[in-house]
Design goal:
Blueprint: H1 7-31, H2 44-50, H3 53-86, H4 92-99, H5 101-104, H6 107-117, H7 123-126, H8 129-154, H9 158-167, H10 172-183, H11 185-201, H12 204-208, H13 214-224, H14 227-250
């Protein structure tokens, strides 16, 4: 027997879709207007931004920064969250509280404090985006990756998996990488793609620290060109959508696990 969908549910679904899609449709139409006559529709604005080498340079830099941020944050937090769930469950509340701090401290205050804190550090770290910006972005990504990993570890039986692995002679390193990590893969990917979206769109810290990243390029286009600005904004939206689609595809299969969650 088929389940009937209530008309009110369909109505609210259409209203929600219109709320999100109509502004994007308006932006798309605006981005297709000609820069000289204002007539629609032409792809000249997209051709202009895609031929700009500064777009690809800033996009590449932001993407590499995001990959470095994701790698460093996961390398720090996966073993930490695993050990907390296995041996120190009482620390979960404290770490959860610390993970809320980046939500409370505004980015403009955070970057001023970090610039002052790291001003005595070597130039290869302080004056390079792959050093200073990554350190700042790891702090911003901390709550997103931590809460994603915490949910993933709570969904599996960490104690049973660890005991079963060690009873078969596995080392701690083997247990972490070949038993635990595959079971929290979806949670790690969720945190990773949220971090990617944050880094690709973060403006305040990059601007005040004088690094020319992709959001800085978008702001420059917004200040100088009207129609291409809409095109590059839609392009940035498309990057986020592709990342979310990759998350859905990567998380479709779940690894096997033993025992129930504690």
């Amino acid at each position: 027997m088929r389940t009937r969908i209530a008309p009110t549910a369909v109505l609210w679904l259409l209203i929600g879709a219109a709320y999100f899609l109509l502004p994007l449709l308006a932006m798309l139409i605006f981005s297709l207007r000609s820069g000289t006559t204002g007539k629609c529709c032409t792809g000249a604005n997209y051709s202009e931004i895609f031929r700009d080498p500064e777009l690809w340079r800033s996009l590449k830099q932001s993407f590499l920064i995001s990959l470095e941020t994701i790698g460093l944050a996961l390398a720090l937090l996966i073993p930490t969250v695993y050990w907390v769930h296995l041996k120190l469950p009482r620390l979960r509340a404290l770490i959860g509280f610390l993970a809320l701090v980046p939500f409370v401290v505004p980015p403009i205050i955070l970057v001023v404090g970090l610039l002052d804190f790291y001003k005595g550090s070597p130039q290869w770290f302080y004056a390079q985006p792959y050093g200073f910006l990554v350190a700042a972005y790891v702090i911003l990504a901390f709550p997103y990756i931590y809460f994603s990993l915490d949910s993933g570890f709570r969904a599996i039986d960490v104690h049973t998996l660890t005991e079963a692995s060690q009873s078969l002679g596995a080392t701690w390193r083997t247990t972490l990488f070949r038993v635990i990590l595959p079971n929290v893969r979806t949670a790690a990917l969720a945190g990773a793609f949220l971090t990617l979206a944050i880094v690709m769109g973060e403006f305040t810290i990059a601007n005040l620290s004088a690094f020319h990243t992709f959001p800085i390029y978008i702001q420059y286009i917004n200040e100088t060109k009207a129609y291409p600005a809409a095109a590059v904004s839609l392009f940035s939206f498309a990057i986020t959508w592709v990342a979310m689609l990759a998350l859905l595809l990567a998380g479709r299969r779940r690894p096997l696990q033993f025992g129930g969650a504690r």
